[in-house]
Structures are given as structure tokens and as C-alpha cells.
């Protein structure tokens, strides 16, 4: 059996990647427009060109958000067919897997063990999966943003390792600058965590090369950091950020008390979202210390588990500087934490049979969890998709009925279908026609008013 795995390791690696693509594509396909998607759909429908979308995004930059990259990707995604987004978003998910995999060092070539850890960690522990991976407004900001940020970190680390072989230093510096702007302009705290990673890797490279008397600074190192700074400053200095922060912070504590209060809440959020991963990481770090891999300062300073763990902590606690965030704001911190944890698992020596059993037992349990959870929630997503299409048909039928009065009553989504892989129930319509999501549906589908009542009640009143 071992010989089979070794002989076909490359083919199995790419087979797993292909399976991962089709798995996430199915979930994307079964995720219709939700929540703020409708608000942006209405806005995007008024734009008749790419330039018009740019103008809309500039208006949002002035009034609501500095996340130009993510929000513009939302507009682009909503200006094309949902099927196009399903494909691109599935590719982005695969890109995140491969980038996380690429940042794990000291692994085997086509390491299936590491690949499965990355995949299962994302499915099991990623923050608010339905919001950050599948919902258009969330995926373009969090999944895509993490791909750009981690892509730049990977790019930077790659050329640090190839610094002496670079032939076109000026072109590379220019590319690093613009790639840095893209990565820096994605997400306030995650882009900041990416900047910290690049800074640490750059400083470690500079110090180690300087000690050996070798050239230690290259143009792309400086331009990449400058690009990220430009992106970050452009994002956090947006007029819309100040307006939104002022609105969100109303009623919250200010000053030192406010900072301490938000720090406490973030600590509790980190425990709630990542406790299992934090425990595994802590155990791994203990093993690394006992195995004398984290004893000297030189080892600690260059250890990727420590570096990514530091970035995860900084990314999480940076949110203390802003009004109390939604859980999805911790997505980037989670990605960095997963890399730190998996790197530590890889680095723990497994000459002892019990450690090897623990490693492969962990990935086996996670894979089993994924199989059962995926199938169960695939059915739930299909049920939600069916019910949403049914509601839209009811709305369109009333709109197209010459005798329709424009007053539509639809059933709410069944609570038993609720799943973390969909944001549907968190933004479902209510019996209040003036509720924000009801208003989105009314304006988008151009009907008088829409109310939603529990399915059982709707069946009694209007069912066949």
C-alpha cells in the first residue's frame, strides 16, 4: 500500500485538488444572491460600462468603505452571470489552498498529508464559511482578499530565496510595488498582518545575509513594502472609513476603557472561533521546544510557526482599534493561524510511533468529518436553494400577473435547513415589509411590498 501511495503521489495530489474544486463549486452553485448582494445588484444595474463601475466604487470610497479592491470585485462579480462568479470563486478557493500549502516549509514534494491538513482546516475551522467563502459580498472581500495578501507574501518569500538569480531587478521591483498595493488595499487587519509577515521575512533575510557578508537588500524588498504601505494608507484614510467608524462606534466605550473592552471581546472571539486550533498549536509548540527546535533565539526568529502565529495574533488584535467587528473580520487571522499550526505539525519529528499515529490520526478524523459534513450540508444548501427559487417565482408571478396587487407574501426559509455554509437564515425576510432585506427584494424585483411568514403558516394560508 505504501508503494502505491509513493508511486502515484503526484497524480493523487492533483486528483485531490480537482475533487476540492468540484466540492466547492457545488456549494457555490447552490448559493444564490443573498443580503447585500441585492443592494449592489441594484447599483450595478445602473452602470453601463466599466468606467461607470469605477465611478460607483469611487463614490463608495468617499461614503462608506476604503476596501477598493474587494468592493470593486463585488461589483464586477455582480455585473456578470452568477455562473461566472461560481467558477472564479471556486478557483479562488483552490488558489488559497495552494498558497497555504506553498507557505508550509520542510514538506515532501506533492505532500498529500499537508494538502489534506490545509483543505480540512479550511472546511472545519474557517470563520463563517458561508459568509466568507460563498456569499458574493463576503467572498470578494475575505476569500479573494486573503488570496491577494497571501499571494504577495508567497511572491515575496519566493524571490527572497532567488534574490541572487534575479536578472531584471527593476522590473521585479515595479511588479512588487504594484502587487504590494493590491495586497495592501484588501482588508484593514489582514493586509496589516500580511505587511508584518513580509517585514519579518525581509528582516530575517537581511540579518542572515549581512552576517555572512553577502548582499542583503534588493530593490524589490523595499518597493514591495512601500507598495503595501501605499495600499494600507489608501484604505484606512478613505473618507468613507471615518464616516462608517463614527456610525458603528455610537454607544460604545471610548478611550482606554473602550480599547480594553474591545480587547477583551476579541480575546473571547478568538477562543470561540479557534479554540481547537489554538490548543493543537500549543501542543505542537511544546513538542518543538522539547525536541530542541525552539530554544535559541535564532531558531525562534526564523521559525515559520512562530512568525505566522505572531501575524495571526496581530491580525486579530488589530481589530481592537476599530468598532466591535463581525466574526468574519477574523478570517485572515484564521488563515495565518492555520499555516502556523500546520507548519508546526510538519516540523514535529515523528520518529516515535505515537507521534506519527497522532499526526495521521488527526488528518484522518478531519477527513471523515469533512465527508459526512459536506454531504449533509450539500443537501441543506440544495433545500435552501429550492426554497429561494420558489419564493422568487412567487414574486415574479405576482409581478407579471395583470391582476396582481403588488403585495406578496412568501414563506420564510425552514429553520431545520440552517447551516454555517449559508448566510441565508441570517438575512432572511420577515413579516415586517419595511425590514431592510424585504426592501431590497421589493426594489430589486419592483413590487409593492413583500412580507415573509413561517413556512407552516404560509402552507395553511396559501398552500395547495
Structural descriptors:
mainly alpha, two-stranded parallel sheet, 464 residues, globular, 72% helix, 2 strands
β-strand number: 2
Q: Taking all residues together, what is the mean pLDDT?
A: 92
How would you sum up the global shape? globular
**Which structural category fits the helices and strands?**
mainly alpha
Q: Percent helix among the residues?
A: over 70%
Q: End-to-end distance, in Å?
A: 58 Å
Give the oligomeric state.
single chain
Q: What is the tally of helical segments?
A: 21
Q: What Rg do the Cα atoms give?
A: 24 Å
How would you spell out the order of helices and strands? HHHHHHHHHHHHHHHHHHHEHEH
Strands side by side in the biggest sheet: 1-2
Poorly predicted runs: none
Q: In percent, how much strand structure appears in the residues?
A: under 5%
| Largest sheet report | 2 strands, parallel
Quick description:
It is built from 21 helices and 2 strands. With 464 residues, the protein is an all-alpha fold. The radius of gyration is 24 Å and the shape is globular.
